[in-house]
Structures are given as C-alpha cells and as structure tokens.
Amino acid sequence: MTAVDLRVAQRPNAPVTTYRYDEYDAAFVRERVAEFREQVLRRLSGALTEEEFRPFRLMNGLYLQLHAYMLRVAIPYGTLTARQMRRLADIADRWDKGYGHFTTRQNLQYNWPKLVDTPDILEALADVEMHAIQTSGNCIRNVTADHFAGVAPDEIEDPRPTAEFLRQWSSLHPEFSFLPRKFKIAVTGAEHDRAAIMVHDVGLRILRNERGEIGYQVVVGGGLGRSPFVGKVVGDFVPREDLLAFLEAIMRVYNRFGRRDNKYKARIKILIHEKGIDEIRAAVEAEFAAMDRSVFSHDPAEFERIASFFAPPPYETLPETSSALRTAKLETPAFANFVDVNVSAHKIPGYAIVTVSLKPIGGIPGDATSEQMRVLADASERFGFGEMRVSHEQNIILPHVKQDDLFALWRLLEPAGLATANAGLVSDIISCPGLDYCSLATARSIPIAQAISKRFADMSRQRRIGKLGIKISGCINACGHHHVGAIGILGLEKKGQESYQITLGGDPTFSASIGEILGPGVTADQVPDVIEHLVDFYLAEREEGEAFIDTWRRIGHVRFKDVLRREGEDGADI
Amino acid sequence: MALISEGRFVEDAWRRLADEEALPKTGRVIVSLPRLEHALEVLGTESALGVIVPNTTEPSSLIQALPRLQLILISFPAFSDGRGFSLARLLRRAGFKGELRASGRLVADQYSHAIGCGFDTIEIPEDLAERQDEGQWCAALDAYSMSYQRGYTGRGSILEARRRAARS
C-alpha cells in the first residue's frame, strides 16, 4: 500500500459502496496474475506460439494494436472507488503515457503498455481489487450495468449485485472460455434503460411481478458490429433462483451450435437470426429442463452477502431542494448551465447525480489524464462518499453529491477541464479509437468527433438543440455504437479514401432500433456540414419538447434524406 | 501422440484402430464412430471398447452404447474450439463413467478447463509435447486453488467454501 492508499483505507468516513474482495476473490485474482506471468514467460521462451498465446493474453485484456499492445482493464458494472481511480492514474504515469481511455463497455484502455510490463500492471490492479480478466477474447466479457445503479429514482433493484454474481460465475468458466465469439452481458434494474441491454448478447432486465418477487427478463441476440440486431426475449420472467441455470443453458446452446466457420457470423445474434428465436428458445428450455438445477440453486445468503456491499451510503436528511444551489446558479451562469445539463435527479432528497463529461470541446472522447483521474478521485472523496461510475457514454459519474456541494464540486472540476456542460448534448459524442490506434479500423473517428464538437462549440446553441446522441465508429465492428446513435457515423475506406456513412434513428434503450442509412458516404471534411444541416432541419421541424429521434420517427427518414440531397445540389460532392 | 494423465506423460494402454483393421477379440481398442455399432455387435463384453467422436456429436446418439464404452475420445479440431468441453459435460451428465479423453492441439493452459468439464486425459501431438513438457502440464493443474463455478470437476468451489464458512 502506498501512503495515500493507507490514508484512504483508514479514513473513518469512507463507506463501503462497492463489492470488496474476500480471501477467495483475492486469491483468485492473484493466481490469475501469476498464471499470466508464466504465460508471458512461456511465450517468450517459445513454449507457447503466438497463436496459442493469443486467447490467453486476450482473456487477460491484452490486445495487439496498430502501434503497440493495448491493455483493457475491467471496471465491473462501472463502479470505481477513489483508491482504485488513483491506482489507474498511477499506472497511466508509470507504464503508459499519463492517460487512459474509458470505453463504451465500462473498461479503461491503456494504449502503450509493454508486454513484459503487463504482469506487473495486473499485479498493481490486483492490489486495489481490480483486474483485466475477460475484457477481451471469445469468452463472457466484463458484465456491465446501469451507471445510475443504486441512485436512479426509477429503479426497481440495484443491478450491481446481479452483475457481481455473474462476474464471479463467468470468471475462468471451465466450459465457456472458448466460445465461437465474444459474449457480452448487460444488466439494468430501472424503468429506463441506460445499459443498452437490447444490443447485448444477453441483456437482463430486473422486474418485479405482482407477488412482489424479483425476476429477470432475458433478452438474447442483440448486438452491433457488421450485422446489427435488436435482441429478442428468450425468457419473460426468470426467477432469481433460476438465473444462473438459465444463463448456463443459453451458453451451452451457443457453445455447441454457434457458427465457427466464419468469425463474422459467430455471434449468438447470427445463430438466432438463422435458426429463429423460437427454435433457440426451445433448445434453451430443453437444456434448462435437462439440467441438474440443484447445482445452480440460488443461494440467497450468498446473494445477500454480495448485495450488502452495495448498501446505500450514510446519506444525510436534507430538504428536497437546496437554497445554496439556487443562489450559486443565479450568481454564476456557467455553473447554472453545468447543473442544468450535467446533473440528474437522485432518489434521495437533497442529493444529485453528476455526470462529469470526458468530452471537452475538440477533445478525444473518453480520454482522461492521470491528473484528471486524481482530481476525480479527490472530488469523489470530498463530495461523494469516494465512489465513481463509468458510463457507457464514456463519461464519469459522481453518484451521490449533495446539492449544497455542487458549486464547490464544480469549482474543483472546472480548472481540471472536467466541467464541460455537455452531458447528453450533441458534443457528448461516443467514439471508438479508430484508425489513430486500432488495427481493425478503416477510417479515423477521433478527428471526426473533434471536428463535430468544434462545429458546435457554441454551448448555448448546443443547449437549444438539446439531447442528441452522435456515435462514431471507425469500422464496421461498430465499437462506437453508431447503429444506435440518433445520428450514427461509420467510417469506411473506399478506393483508398475515408468515406463516412451516416445513419439516423438509432436508439439504444428498451425502444431499441438500428439506424437507417441516409445516403452515399461523405468525405471527412463534409461530415460536420452534413451533421449541421441535419440538426438545423430537425430544429426547424421539431415540435415542442420533441427529441431528434421522435421527430425523425414522426416525419420519416425520407424527409431527412432530402436534406442531404439538397446539400448535394448546393455543390458539395455527396 | 503424447498422453497426459494427472499431470504426467503416461503410456497409452489403448490402441486406435484404423477402419480397415480387423477387430481384435481382446485388448483395448478405439474405433471410429461409424464403426461403433458394428464393434458393439461383434465384440463380447470381455474386450474393452473405446470410440473417437467428433465434437459435434449429439450425446443422445451415444446413450445406448454408453454402458459398453470404457473410453470416449473427443476430438478438438482446433484448441480454440470449445465445443468439446460442452460435449464432455453432457456425456458425464448422461452417466458416462469411463475415461473421457480430449484429443487435439490442446495447450497446458486449458488443462484445468478440460478436467473441470469431466475429461480424465488429454492426448496431444508429439511436436506440441516437446514444447509443452510435463512440468507445464503439472503446473497448470495447480494454477488455481479454487473456482467460482459449482458442479464442475476438480477444484473446490468458492461458493461452497463461503457457504461452509457462513455456517460455522
């Protein structure tokens, strides 16, 4: 432990807000690191060929990228403590170039680690109960959850105990570590879906039935990539005691029958598309019926043990609204804008949920420097019980801030470049790393995000436009989730030139839909113009309080296509 | 081929029979799946019979034969093809008590997965055995003290251990 760690660990008012490892968890992660250390040595000695080493390094989060290795660290269900965030900062300084990149799946990526250093990095993570296990590879990936878990007013149950339960169950699974392809699970326990469960291999939605019992709606076969699909319901209400058995049945059907002849057709969504959901449901139900479910029988004591870690922090009893906040907003307009845009309602009176945008105007979406990470850690300790969340929109959430403290928090964030008041607005762009980092990419995505962000640099204009999700991917693998962006941008390569295909009408929530292609691709230079015209057209057409996607759904895709066509006639080569 | 059992390279007591070879009256022979039915008819219960099956085999197609089989060898066309793990598990669930063997280019790092799913032995090509010696297979068995899953063979279950600790 460093001196800072020691100080934090001894802090008397630091409540437990996330899962803490017991001796078994700690031993498991240490053993995983030791095993990987040996695997690296065996790779270097030639005992393992690169082909043999590959799945094992991937299942420990290590990718070979365009320029270097990339290490993807799991932030299970997006929850981070101040101590953990500081460790991420330390790792960025010691083994990387002083920054990290938060991804769309609640992971953090380091872009420049050396292979021989990775066991030490994993060891440093294990010290603070973190790991990079199964953030990559053809296995069950890091389980994600609603980033407002535990604090959202619309919540039925905190999804994180379920996600932690699944993290453990899926870790180094003997049977399901060599699947046809990767397998992603997301959990939400709220009425609004902030975890994009409809576009995961398995999406779990916590429900309460008429008798007050908790169960799960199980959605299967959603996904983005080159063949986007919205998931289909395979179980309407799976009782908690059957959840593991039901998932095991899905995994076994997928492991046995998922295609392995073509990696682009190997996800479970393709199996379901080709066989039909009815056939797959029947296969899952038959497998479920044949299993010895006593093995999986729900252990309420174990679930309660896990859930107890996610107990609410010791909130104060406060009035519903804060007069200090009201005053500060009146006196400081920039702060007022921040509150109006980046602060969400909290289930406890007098508290607020703060979204810290990692999308400064013209910046790289999702990147944070080690200094910013430390500021966030400090901010969470001073104002939020030492807890943070990572959202799939690549922002950081401070989930429990007193409204009275919002102004002081803002003053701490502002000089660190962490007070951009654009959460959910047009410049809060989701983007993959693209051709600047990624060996799969066919086009750049970060510079496109930066150009759009600069085009809409006028914050008052952004607020007038309102919530609007732009998502950018640099290739058809769709890491930037462009299919579910209200405006999606896909970078392709055509005859040696970057070409950007625009889609409209994507929606990642329960009302999920895949965006429709607007027309022929445009050049990188044209993208900001096209986006601006689409946004202007929306502003002209929208009805009171109508979001972009609602206007698009109401007036239809063709009207938006006309905008692009007119744009072409004006001289642009589109 | 090299055969690994309990972390050691061991002699193979079984002989894999080519389809054109006559069935011997005694001894331990492994036949191909298409030949299984015939072998079951011809051979008496005094000879030990094994079968090699592809990893796509439907377990129900082997149910009748299970009590007569002393070895089932599941082939792994690629080490990264995990279908054999599910098939092993299903054969154990169907009540198969004999030796379950994985055959292919499996690496030592998969040993505990194989044991967990019900395999007893693994056979790998000689060139792989040269690179991945006995020490590596033996070490792989001890890489983890416990596992999170319940109902898989081999290591103790963390869930069970927690349950015991909570009771005491």
Description:
The complex is a heterodimer of chains A (574) and B (168). Chain A folds into four domains: 17-127, Sulfite Reductase Hemoprotein, domain 2 (Alpha-Beta Complex); 151-308, Sulfite Reductase Hemoprotein, domain 1 (2-Layer Sandwich); 323-416, Sulfite Reductase Hemoprotein, domain 2; 431-569, 2-Layer Sandwich (Sulfite Reductase Hemoprotein, domain 1). In chain A, helix 11 (323-331) crosses helix 12 (333-342). Chain A starts with a helix and ends in a 5-residue tail after the last helix. Chain A is of the alpha+beta class. Mean pLDDT of chain A is 93; it is low at 1-10 and 569-574. In chain A, strand 11 (343-345) and strand 12 (351-356) form a beta hairpin. In chain A, the strands form four sheets. In chain A, strands 1-2-5-4-13 form a five-stranded antiparallel β-sheet. In chain A, strands 3-14-15-12-11 form a five-stranded antiparallel β-sheet. Chain A is built from 19 helices and 20 strands. The longest helix of chain B is centred in the middle third of the chain and has 11 residues, at 83-93. An eight-stranded mixed β-sheet of chain B has the order 2-1-8-7-6-5-4-3. A two-stranded parallel sheet of chain B has the order 9-10. Chain B is of the alpha/beta class. Chain B is globular and about 55 Å long. Chain B has one domain (2-167): TIM Barrel. The interface between A and B is large, with 44 and 41 residues.
